[in-house]
Amino acid sequence: MVFVTPLQGDGETAAAAQIGFNVSQTLHSVRIIGPNQRGIVAELTAKLAEAGINLRGFSASVIGSRFIAYAAVDSHADARKAIEILGWD
Questions:
Q1: Is the peptide bond before 35 cis (omega within 30 degrees of 0)?
Q2: Which residues lie across from 31 on neighbouring strands?
């Protein structure tokens, strides 16, 4: 399974559909960026689990001294809750 995000605007959505991607209305994602630290992803996912947020997908990469991660969740409400829990808004 491959997640492509964020798609911005009708043109990007149409281009993704043209090459076989399907737009999901039932999957939402949260982008998380921060300093790269040992155990940071474990800490973040533990906080989400404690709040009862189901992760449908998760990916993370390190770029220099920072990380970027995407957490795929079940609903817009879960995405908002994750943002609040992780301290991003």
A1: no
A2: 70
pLDDT number for residue 55: 94
Query: Which H helix or E strand runs over 57?
Result: strand 55-63
- In this structure, the number of other CB atoms found within 10 A of the CB of residue 40 comes to 16
pLDDT in the model for residue 58: 92
Residue with tokens 């090459």: 19
- If pLDDT is split at 50, 70 and 90, which confidence band does 88 have? low
Alpha-carbon span 9 to 60, nearest angstrom: 25
Write down the H helix ranges in 1-89: 9-18, 40-50, 76-86
User: How far apart, in whole angstroms, are the C-alpha atoms of residue 11 and residue 68?
Assistant: 25
Identify the CATH class of 26-86. alpha beta
pLDDT digits (tens, 9 = 90+) for 46-85: 999 999 999 999 999 999 999 999 999 999 999 999 999 9
